[in-house]
Amino acid sequence: MNDICEAIASYLVQQTRTGWVKIIAEVEFFEDAAEFDITCQYSDNTIEDLDSGFQLFMKFKALYRITTENSENKWNKAKCTINQSGEFNIDFEWDQAQADEIERLS
Questions:
Q1: Between 26 and 70, whose confidence is greater?
Q2: Residue numbers of the domain that contains 7
Q3: Angle at alpha carbon of residue 102, lines to 99 and 103, rounded to 5°
Q4: Which among 4, 14, 24, 70 has most CB atoms closer than 10 A?
C-alpha cells in the first residue's frame, strides 16, 4: 500500500511548480470510474487545479483493491493531503447516499 501512496503523491507533486505548500485530492470512487477534485496551494496563497488522468485513476483502483480486501473496509470517497514537508495523509469514507444513487442509476 505504501508504494501506491508514494506513486499517487509523486504523480501529483510532478504537476506543481516551485513554492507549493499543500496538495489536496478529493476523490469519489465508483470502482470503474472516479471523479477527482485536486488543488494545490502555493506559498503566495494562490490555488491551482491539478490534473487527474487515467494513471491516477489506475493508482486509486489499485489502492481500492488492496484496502477493500476485507469487505468491512468499504469506501467510495477519499481525501488525500500532501504537505511540502513530505507528510502524506489519506482518509477513506463510505457515503451510503452516493452508493444508493449510483445503484439507482445503474
A1: 26
A2: 2-105
A3: 85
A4: 4
Please report the pLDDT score of residue 91 as a whole number.
96
3-state SS record for the chain: CHHHHHHHHHHHHCCCCCCEEEEEEEEEECCCCEEEEEEEEECCCCEEECCCHHHHHHHHHHHHHHHCCCCCCCCCEEEEEEECCCCEEEEEECCHHHHHHHHHHC
Longest CA–CA span in the chain (Å) reads 45
CB atoms within 10 A of CB 25: 23
Total domain count for the chain? Answer: 1
